Amino acid sequence: MPRYSAFMYSAALSVAVVAAPPAFADVTPQQVWDDIEAYMTSFGYEVAGTETLSGSTLSVKDMVLTMDIPDGEGVLSFSAADVVLEDAGNGSVRVSFPADMPITLNMTEVPDGEPFDLTIDYTQDGLEMIVSGTPGDLTYDYTADSLGMRLTELVVDGEVLGRDVARADITLTDISGNAQVTVADIRTISQVLKAASVDYDIAFNDPEAEGSALFAGSMAGLLFEGSTSIPLDMDPEDMPAMLAAGFAVDGTFGHSGGSGSFAVTEDGEVTTGRTSSGSGTLQVTMNADALAYSGRTTDVEMSMTGGELPFPVETAMSETAINLTLPTSKGDEPSDVAFGVNLAGFTMSDMLWNIFDPGKALPRDPATLAFDLTGKVKMLVELMDAEQMAMMDRENALPAEPQSLTLSGLLVEAIGARLTGEGSFTFDNTDLETFDGMPRPTGTLNLTLDGANAVLDRLIAAGLMKQQDAMGARMMLSMFAVAGSGEDQLKSTLEINESGQILANGQRIR
User: Is residue 412 domain-resident?
Assistant: First the structure.
């Protein structure tokens, strides 16, 4: 979670609106402001503003949060003309924000690009926030009719680009949520955010290159639940040290469905398309042990036409899912690693099928690709250290030593055939010669293929394969597989032994 995400909290202080008035302990406006300022400062922001206390109301005028982009390439800032914190009368504090709060990014050096300045207006309508609790244990409750971000100015290499060249508008509606902030040896933020919908409209136009792009759409039923642990004293530019000090993120994003459209113009040709999906989730975890992502979306549909496509393209999937786990810290002990994919129920339109199978010789049943890989690796560098990772890349070296790998849940279903499998391997990192620089694996892979001969017959009938090619494919299969117990079933056991020999069903092939 980079420092930029601190704006997410400031948008939970801007994103905020009060919903409930639960206050059994007193907190003052000054204490609330001190908590906000301490949080921002811990992420490396410079906080400026003029504080004025009048009775039980604290006003922070001309508030500006400023952060230098690493390596001196630019400056990011967030400003609000007047943030007002007032005693709500029941031991809690009401926080009010202006309707418009500009975010500016000034980039003086851009690798392989031109310097630019941009301004985004962060807007709110009906934003209300109530803060209750005691110093060190505060709860921010908020609601808002809408929150938005709008690109209002873009200057590239000194040239002002209008909204006819670049525009970006994002709006959330009917927002509610809360964030509980506790401070002890570490700062912990637990929060829930809900929004009825989010709409986006993003477009770019390059008259000189005769190119443009437009993306628009919406999602409904947004939900975020998560927690963040932040060390009280940390260097935001040293992520490995932050993780070692206890920095951690665990969050889940979800939505109930969405749709979008796009149009891309290149060299005078226009490609347009539409997408839609059912519900979806994305979970992200990062701590000193691992970085993990997992996402799932249902009922995905896409259509495209125009451009270099000679015909409309329509595809759909009943489910798409992916998961990835990587260790974050260098260590002497093996750490868990995982990668999994599930692309289920893939279908495409008859028009697309008819291009290569007009006679419908091939079954058009939904196709599926799924597998899960799990294993152990020993990290040689810090995953979040950009310099160490770049060094490994320059030296063409792996950042980790593989220790073991297990394949489970392999499933490939398409055009009437079905492949399943599972296996496991260990790796000898002291032997880099047997397999040309790769640690020598030892283990077994078991595969079962149903319907292979029927598929070859159908490919011949569809005119996609000649008889002699099919014969060669059958001979190749016979070298690696034996007949299974089912009709038109082949089985194969591939083994790599400790001598580095490769065997197929007991017969040495290497």
Answer: no
